C-alpha cells in the first residue's frame, strides 16, 4: 500500500477558521496526514490546541520559534508535504502571497514551496470584489495557484451578502483530492487500449452555396485534447468542424461542415470509452437552405432566414441506452453567469463532467491560446488557474484517465 498523502493546512484569521477543524477531520477520514500552520490572526479565532488535539501533533505558528527551526524548519514544512491548502485564506494573506512576502511562517512556507497550492478564500464580499484583491487573485492564478470559492451567501456581518464565504467542507475535500490526483505523475500510456472521441471547432450551416452561419470557435482546445489523449496512448477520433489547424499527430481526423454531419460522424465512431464535446455546434441550421445563390432584389424586402433546431449531439450521446461512453465530458461556453448555466447544463445534458469557460470577447479565450476553466463534476466545482489550452487539455485528459482506471478497478 502506498503511504498516506501529506497535506499542510494553513489556517489564516477569520470567522471561518473554525470550519478548518471540520476539514481536518474529513481529511483524516480519508486517511490523509494533516499538519497545521496557523497565522497569528487565526489563533484569535481558534486555539492552536484544538488543531493540535485533532492532529495529535504540534501546530506551527511562529517563524522565529527556534525549536521549530531546529526540529523542522519552514523549508521542510514547505517541501515535505504533497500539497498545501490555505483554508480560510484572508485577503491579507492572498495579498502577501501575490507580493511574495515572507515575514511570517505561513508566507515564508508559501514562498519556499514547490508543491501545489490550493487557496480557499473567505472574506467580506466588498474585500473579495475590491480591485486589489482581484489583481492579487489573477496574479496568483497566473502563477499556477488554484482557487476554490468563495461561495455566495450571507456573511457573519448582519445584512452583508455576496461572494465571500468559505466553500463547504465536502467541496473543499473534493478540490483537495483533485489537486492531489493531478499533482501526481501520470502513467505515460494510461489510455492505451482506450478509444477517445473529441468534437471540435465550429459548424457551418449553409444558407446558400456561398453563404453560411458560423461562430468564432478556433478548434484549438479540441485539437489539444485530441493531442493529449493520443500522447497517453489512446486511439483518438477527432470530429472537427471547419478550422485552419493541422491534423494532430497520431489522431484520426474526420472533417465535417454542418452539425448534422458532425452528429453522424460521432455516432459512426462509437463505441468509445471517453467522449469530449468541445465543438461549438450551431444550435440552429437554415430550415431550407437554397441550392442557388440568393440574389439581391432591389424591389423586394431582404430575405428572412427561417431556422430549425439542430440535434444536441452531447445530449443524445449522454442519454444513449447502448454504447454510452463511460465518461462523457461537455463544454459550456458562456458570456455571463458562467457557473449557473454550467450547473444547469451538467444536469440537463446528462454529461458526467462539464468544462465551463467565459467566452466573452474581453477574455480572449475564443480564438486565443489560453483558457480559464471551471470543472464541474458530481463532486463539486474546481476553478483552474489561467493556463495554456495545451495544459488544460493535459490536465483534463490525465483526470479522465485516472477516472477510468478507478472505475475499472472498482468493477474488478
Ligand atoms: N453541443 C452539442 N450539440 C449541439 C449543441 C451543443 O454537442 N447541438 C455541446 C457542445 O459541444 C458543448 C455543450 O453541448 O459540449 C454545450 O454547448 P453550448 O454551446 O455551451 O451550449 P448549448 O447547449 O448550445 O446552450 P446555449 O447555446 O443556450 O448556451
Description:
The protein folds into two domains: 6-181, 3-Layer(aba) Sandwich (Rossmann fold); 195-411, Rossmann fold (3-Layer(aba) Sandwich). The chain contains 14 helices and 21 strands. The strands form six sheets. Strands 12-11-8-13-16-17-19-20 form an eight-stranded mixed β-sheet, sandwiched between helices. By secondary structure, it is α/β, with parallel strands linked by helices. The longest helix has 23 residues, at 389-411. Helix 1 (19-29) crosses helix 9, helix 5 (91-99) crosses helix 8 and helix 10 (220-231) crosses helix 14 (389-411). Bound molecules: cytidine-5'-triphosphate (CTP). Cytidine-5'-triphosphate binds next to helix 12 and strand 16.
SSE arrangement:
Blueprint: E1 6-11, H1 19-29, E2 33-38, H2 48-55, H3 66-71, H4 74-79, E3 83-89, H5 91-99, H6 105-112, E4 117-121, H7 125-129, H8 131-142, E5 146-147, E6 151-154, E7 161-165, H9 169-183, E8 195-200, E9 205-208, E10 211-213, H10 220-231, E11 235-240, E12 252-255, H11 259-269, E13 274-277, E14 284-286, E15 307-309, H12 313-318, E16 327-334, H13 338-349, E17 353-358, E18 370-371, E19 373-377, E20 380-383, E21 387-388, H14 389-411
Parallel strand pairs: 1-2, 1-3, 3-4, 4-5, 8-11, 8-13, 11-12, 13-16, 16-17
Antiparallel strand pairs: 6-7, 9-10, 14-15, 17-19, 18-21, 19-20
The structure holds cytidine-5'-triphosphate.
Cytidine-5'-triphosphate is lined by residues 199, 259, 277, 279-281, 283, 310, 312-314, 330-333, 345.
Amino acid at each position: 500500500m502506498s503511504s498516506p498523502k501529506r497535506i499542510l493546512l494553513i489556517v489564516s484569521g477569520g470567522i471561518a477558521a473554525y470550519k478548518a477543524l471540520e476539514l481536518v477531520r474529513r481529511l483524516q477520514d480519508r486517511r490523509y496526514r494533516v499538519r497545521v500552520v496557523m497565522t497569528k490572526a487565526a489563533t484569535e479565532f481558534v486555539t492552536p490546541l484544538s488543531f493540535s488535539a485533532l492532529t495529535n501533533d504540534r501546530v506551527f505558528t511562529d517563524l522565529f520559534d527556534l525549536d521549530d527551526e531546529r526540529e523542522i524548519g519552514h523549508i521542510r514544512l514547505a517541501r515535505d508535504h504533497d500539497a498545501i491548502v490555505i483554508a480560510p485564506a484572508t485577503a491579507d494573506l492572498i495579498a502577501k502571497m501575490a507580493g511574495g512576502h515572507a515575514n511570517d511562517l505561513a508566507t515564508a512556507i508559501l514562498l519556499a514551496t514547490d508543491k501545489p497550492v490550493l487557496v480557499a478564500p473567505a472574506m467580506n464580499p466588498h474585500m473579495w470584489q475590491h480591485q486589489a484583491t482581484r489583481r492579487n487573485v489573477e496574479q496568483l492564478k497566473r502563477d499556477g495557484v488554484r482557487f476554490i470559492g468563495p461561495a455566495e451567501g450571507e456573511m457573519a456581518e448582519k445584512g452583508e451578502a455576496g461572494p465571500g464565504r468559505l466553500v463547504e467542507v465536502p467541496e473543499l475535500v473534493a478540490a483537495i483530492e483533485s489537486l492531489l490526483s493531478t499533482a501526481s505523475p501520470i502513467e505515460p500510456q494510461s489510455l492505451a487500449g482506450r478509444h477517445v472521441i473529441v468534437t471540435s471547432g465550429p459548424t457551418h450551416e449553409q444558407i446558400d452555396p456561398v453563404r453560411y452561419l458560423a461562430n468564432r470557435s478556433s478548434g484549438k482546445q479540441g485539437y489539444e485534447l485530441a493531442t493529449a489523449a493520443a500522447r497517453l496512448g489512446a486511439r483518438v477520433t477527432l470530429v472537427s468542424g471547419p478550422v485552419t489547424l493541422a491534423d494532430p499527430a497520431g489522431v484520426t481526423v474526420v472533417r465535417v461542415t454542418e452539425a448534422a454531419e458532425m452528429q453522424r460522424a460521432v455516432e459512426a465512431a462509437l463505441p468509445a470509452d471517453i467522449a469530449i464535446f468541445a465543438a461549438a455546434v450551431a444550435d440552429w441550421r437554415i430550415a431550407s437552405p437554397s441550392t442557388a445563390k440568393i440574389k439581391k432584389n432591389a424591389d423586394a424586402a431582404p430575405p428572412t432566414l427561417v431556422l430549425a433546431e439542430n440535434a444536441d449531439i452531447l445530449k443524445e450521446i449522454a442519454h444513449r441506452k447502448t454504447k454510452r461512453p463511460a465518461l462523457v465530458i461537455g463544454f459550456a461556453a458562456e458570456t455571463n453567469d458562467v457557473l449557473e448555466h454550467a450547473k444547469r447544463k451538467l444536469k440537463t445534458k446528462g454529461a458526467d463532467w462539464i468544462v465551463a469557460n467565459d467566452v466573452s470577447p474581453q477574455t480572449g479565450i475564443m480564438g486565443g491560446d489560453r483558457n480559464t476553466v471551471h470543472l464541474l463534476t458530481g463532486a463539486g466545482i474546481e476553478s483552474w488557474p489561467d493556463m495554456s489550452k495545451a495544459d488544460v487539455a493535459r490536465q483534463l485528459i490525465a483526470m479522465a484517465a485516472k477516472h477510468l482506471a478507478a472505475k475499472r478497478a472498482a468493477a474488478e
